[in-house]
Amino acid sequence: MIRKILLLARTVRYLKFKQIVYQVYYRLKTVHNLSWFEHKFKAGPVYNPLRFNIQYQVAGLLKPSNTFNFLNLQHSFNDAVDWDYQGYGKLWNYNLQYFNYLHQADITTQQKQALLNDIGSWLKSGKLKLEPYPVALRVMNTIRFISAADLKNADIIRDLYAQLAYLNDNLEYHLLGNHLLEDAFALFMGGHFFNVDAWCETAKAILYKELNEQVLDDGAHFELSPMYHQIIFFRVLELADWYTNVNNNDGDFLMFIKQKAADMLKWLQLISFKNGDIPHFNDSATGITFTTPQLQSFAQQLNISANNQLNLKDSGYRKYQSDKYECVIDVGAVGPSYQPGHSHSDALSFVLYSNNLPVFVDAGTSTYQIGGKRSYERSTNAHNTVEVSGKNQSEVWGGFRVGRRAQVQIHTQLAHELCASHNGYKKTFAADHSRCFTFGVDVITIKDIISASKPLPAKAIFHLYAGYEIDVVSKTEVLLNKTITIQFTGVNKFEILTYELADGYNKYLPAKYLSVEFNNELKTSIIFQ
């Protein structure tokens, strides 16, 4: 019990005072159903459809017999949808509530309206609890749908207005981060759709403040997940898109949004591999949002060009490449400090591609469900770094929480060399881990040093992408697919083990990893033919 209290204390100490106040406030606040917000407005709301230049469609989310497919998990409701279905966990249920399938071409307008009316009845009766995040995403999808179809359904319009009224009263100040941004994007869109100036002003103030904080100086979204960067980048592009078409828009605000888009575009270009993939650092996965090529195309449609003055810096990621490889390295901190829910224990990890194909990858993210799989995927053991005595560098726990955090310090940063260290093992073992990368034309050298007062069992881990053939040449050398040689100096022993590579949420590929045991110092050479 005392250990749990201390762990909680080490976690909570990073929160902003504002988060704590709103955590208490929202726990004490009466939770109303949608009818309460509808009855506040006696007259039917007047609205103006918005015009979107960026058009897109989705496919396969909704199939006949009310069969829904999210996160690679499918469920059929047949006649009646259970909007509170929890059989596949909260994230799957959230996807059910987002209504992304409103953009699915093979569903009729009548079907879409029936589904919106149905969830509206659940929200009004209280069978389904209102929650800000799914409300925000559903609001934006619904406004897109209504605007494109020029819909005149009074019930849906009234429900939409009420959801925005709820959102305005329940902005996620207790969480902040990407949640509050999504709330603000939705409220700003809804404010202009319904001509509610108060909503617009509230949302605009949040967007100014949060985008200035959440988009770092190198263009990265501060939660340091390439996937969440793509999600928020799309929202910035979407805002620039429809707001450009609003009469008498605020030119300074529009310029601000487009500048953030230009910065975010550049970071995405820098972090992405040549084939368009992103490294799956922190909570990142395929199949969740728009890809880098799609987002680049959207930006081009809006005449938004990348800010080419930016380089990877504040986000803590660095990229090195030659004609034979691309390597992205994580030398950043757990972040942001007050909302690290999507962070992993992965200091000094790296992802490596060669000839446009993945070689060394993170184990990935396949679930947000609290349990063994979630704990593993956030652990040091699931990343290409060094684990000491089987412990994590940072105290990741509870699905989205982080207690004590490893602090990273960069020592050398040159055109072909990067050296850094972290203190994640200082408290437990009085040890530091330093790692130095040297990049040649056809070879990468990694030198790991564990500085401690006594010998500690250390293990360097190298996760291979699925399908690699590994030939053991000697006790210190292996050959990958007969094209890449890995040599170890200072190794006690290495093993070839198997793991489940997350190929999206709830989807796995069998793959292998190298577990390399050493005492104080290990040199790894990756040689490309």
SSE layout and pairings?
Elements: H1 2-12, H2 17-28, H3 34-38, E1 62-63, E2 67-70, E3 73-76, H4 90-98, H5 109-125, H6 132-149, H7 154-169, H8 177-194, H9 197-214, H10 226-244, H11 251-271, H12 292-301, E4 317-321, E5 326-330, E6 350-354, E7 357-360, H13 372-378, E8 386-388, E9 396-397, E10 401-402, E11 408-414, E12 417-422, H14 426-429, E13 432-439, E14 443-451, E15 458-463, E16 470-474, E17 477-480, E18 484-502, E19 508-528
Antiparallel strand pairs: 1-2, 2-3, 4-5, 5-6, 6-7, 8-15, 9-10, 11-12, 12-13, 13-14, 14-19, 15-19, 16-17, 17-18, 18-19
Helix pairs in contact: 4-6, 6-7, 6-8, 7-8, 8-9, 8-10, 10-11, 10-12, 11-12
Coarse shape: elongated
Residues in helices, as a percent range: 25-40%
The whole-angstrom Rg is 24 Å
User: Structural class of the helix and strand makeup?
Assistant: alpha+beta
| Low-confidence segments | none
**Number of strand elements:** 19
> What is the CATH class of one domain?
Mainly Beta
Q: Treating each run of at least 4 consecutive H or I residues as one helix, how many helices?
A: 14
Head-to-tail CA distance between termini: 55 Å
Q: In percent terms, what proportion of residues is strand?
A: 15-25%
In round numbers, the mean pLDDT is 96
Please state the second-level CATH architecture of one domain: Distorted Sandwich
Biggest beta sheet attributes: 10 strands, antiparallel
**CATH T-level topology of one domain:** Beta-galactosidase, Chain A, domain 5
